[in-house]
Amino acid sequence: MNGQTAAQYIGEYAAARRYDELSDLTIARARQVMLDHFGVTLGGIQMKLGKMAADYTAQMHPGNDATIIGDGRRSTIEGAAWANAVAGKAMGMDDSHRGAGHVASELVPVALTLGEVYQLSGEQVITALAVGYDVMEMIQVAVDAWQRERGHDHKGQAGTIASAVTAAVAMGLPAEQIAHALALSMDMACGTEQYVYDAGACDTKDLLAAYGAQNGIASARMAAFGFRGPPGALDGEYGYFHAFGPGYDPAFLDRLDGEALARTGFKPHAGCRHVHACVDATQDLLASGRPDLAAITAIEIDTYHEAITPSFRVNYDPQTLGQASFSLPVTVSVILTRGQWFTEDIAAYDEPEQRRLRQLVKVGLDEEIQAQHPLKNGCEVRIHTADGALYRGRVEHAKGEPENMLTDAEFEAKFRHMSGDILPEMQTAELLDNINRLEYLDDVGDLVRLTLPQTMPTPVGV
């Protein structure tokens, strides 16, 4: 590091990254992340929380800098990124990185908002996203166990820092200012996971991603203006790794290998990512034979430790839809009765048959999967019936992980399911076509403009 601080090292790393250095897989993942994020954002803007975020932003952050996706109103740069991040998180179906958690809901709104404002090319946006994913993974892998024990949330913490670097790269800032953007953002990084216990009674699960996006952009713009952050923001005596993690180790920086974006995964189902392997295992079970629900005497779910702890993950009596979306007993009961795990399916969690089935569930640890976690996030489901029959389903990797990736058709099907009929078919087809050639776009603002409602005038050139 030649006497550099960690922030300065990252600043030079980020400033030096070039599109032509990125792997083909990283570029392909960038297209998939963009497609996935547009789908969940267009869906989220139709939900109560997404609509409220758009209304709040239009009222409290009036401006004409950038567009609220799927809504059409305009706001300040930070305001638009905040609203777009809330909408992108509201459906709970944004991407899920095994080392860094949910990343797209913070970084993509930053890249898209600044891409629209600065008329960035697809190559520039992909590069900024790739660097942001690198930084997010590097930080979060180092602090994850420590923060989980203390209830910190990665979206508002590491997500804020990664958003600042993404914004600074998108803005074309030099290494020194990228380092200051990171350092300034460190003191804006915040958030806890209390929302998992208060699920359904608060909105912060989705607002935390928006804080990260908004504060990341603010940090980069402050750095560009000349403000400075502490050089020891990450590795100092009171820096981030000391305050929110196990302390600093220079080996943390070795994780900056340029491939974090290639390692991201996607959520084909709603609810918490840690229940998805249970969804897949139960669907696998049903594909080979459907048990008579009335004859079921016991249901066994074995998976990895993080999916069965803390207690809210094995909740037999959830009081809200939010709580139900984290619960393994609810997951298996809903799949057995409805076959799918979208929000409308989870909403049926308290129907009589679901209540009966989830009381039959016993949750345990699968030692084989646990030994390879997080490289594996699988699950096994076993169902016993009164006639002595045993039904078994097992997956080693949840659907959407790099080893079990969605097909192009499945990505498009998810997009269409999430976005619904918010856009007419011709506009949807054009948006899909443009996302699929993301790296060739001269101005990614064209993607944002293709989400404008038909009731609004369509800008020239779209």
* Largest sheet descriptor: 4 strands, mixed
What name is given to the CATH topology of the largest domain? Answer: 2-methylcitrate dehydratase PrpD
Whole-number radius of gyration?
22 Å
CATH superfamily (homologous) name of the largest domain: 2-methylcitrate dehydratase PrpD
Total separate domains: 2
How much of the sequence lies in strands comes to: 5-15%
State the helix count: 20
What strand order characterises the main sheet?
Answer: 4-3-5-6
H and E order: HHHEEHHHHHHHHEHHHHHEHEEHHH
Describe the structure in your own words.
The structure is a single chain. By secondary structure, the protein is α+β, with helices and mostly antiparallel strands. It folds into two domains: 6-263, 2-methylcitrate dehydratase PrpD (Orthogonal Bundle), CATH 1.10.4100.10; 273-399, 2-Layer Sandwich (60s Ribosomal Protein L30, Chain: A), CATH 3.30.1330. It is 50% helix and 7% strand. The protein is built from 20 helices and six strands. The strands form two sheets. A four-stranded mixed beta sheet has the order 4-3-5-6. A hairpin with a 4-residue loop joins strand 5 and strand 6 (390-395). Helix 4 (77-90) packs antiparallel against helix 9 (204-225). The chain is globular.
